[in-house]
Amino acid sequence: MNILCPVCKKRLYKKDRSYRCESGHNFDIAKEGYLNLNRRDSKNTGDNPDMIKARKRFLDKGYYAFLAEAVNDLLEEGDSLVDLACGEGYYTSRFCCKDKIGIDLSKSGLKIASKSDKDTLYLLNSIFHDPLEDKCCDKVVTIFAPIAGKEICRILKDDGSFILVRPDKRHLLQLKQIVYDHPYLNEAEDVVISGLTRTDQIKIEEEKTVSKEDLSDLFMMTPYYNTTSLTDKKKLEKAGNTKISFCFIIDIFKKG
Ligand SMILES: C[S@@+](CC[C@H](N)C(=O)[O-])C[C@H]1O[C@@H](n2cnc3c(N)ncnc32)[C@H](O)[C@@H]1O
């Protein structure tokens, strides 16, 4: 897959420790290995270092390994793959494809990702303005992240697929029962994306015992973390090892 200059949209070529286009725009590769192509003055800087560290600690314990395997089963080694909002690359690095690009706005996420996974090109950029050519990839993956529908349609080859992972209704219910007086189920309505048609849906779930030390990291990975009061968050400190349901929906979309 070729990457494009964010200034003039011409193709970028790697030379030593930087990428350069024929107009002379130059982008140095960070010492960890990722490439910063973000030229937008956006307030969104992705997940902060504490969120990234918490997610890394939790994912490295293997609780979500079954999800990585389920997505990997949908991929082929010969596929070109773009992981949109790849975070610290836990899933990206495990995907079997040889030609992989991971995109995220979190510098701390990409530092971790690119330091340990040299098989993937990690780009610091918004997923809503991918520095990639039209119809360049076989698979696009988005896991627990915003859906950039227009860009997904643009970069996918005509016979390519988009794989979306999102939480199902009962995902993390027991965790919410610790924190909230009236926990609710997640919304899990069908996702509609203009230009794409859903061709399959897979639901997977496992119940696992999460150690008391890992509960806070897990909670920090959720969207509720920023909207929950300190008093409610502190309830997690009193909880012991807890059985938690991990319930995921994997949607597969084709163009058209
Ligand atoms: C919940 S995390 C999921 C990360 C990864 N897919 C995973 O499941 O481990 C959401 C990610 O989306 C990234 N993100 C949010 N908005 C973004 C945007 N507009 N462009 C690129 N990345 C974005 C955040 O930095 C964060 O890493």
Please summarize what this structure is:
The chain is an alpha/beta fold and 256 residues long. Helix content is 26%, strand content 29%.
Descriptive overview:
With 256 residues, the protein is of the alpha/beta class. The chain has a single domain (13-38, 46-255), classed as Rossmann fold (3-Layer(aba) Sandwich). Helix content is 26%, strand content 29%. It is built from 8 helices and 11 strands. It has helices spanning 49-60, 65-72, 90-94, 107-116, 149-155, 173-179, 212-220, 230-238; strands spanning 13-15, 18-20, 26-28, 35-36, 80-84, 99-104, 120-124, 137-143, 156-167, 196-210, 242-255. The strands form 2 sheets. An 8-stranded mixed β-sheet has the order 4-7-6-5-8-9-11-10, sandwiched between helices. Strand 1 and strand 2 form a beta hairpin. The two termini are 22 Å apart. The structure holds S-adenosylmethionine.
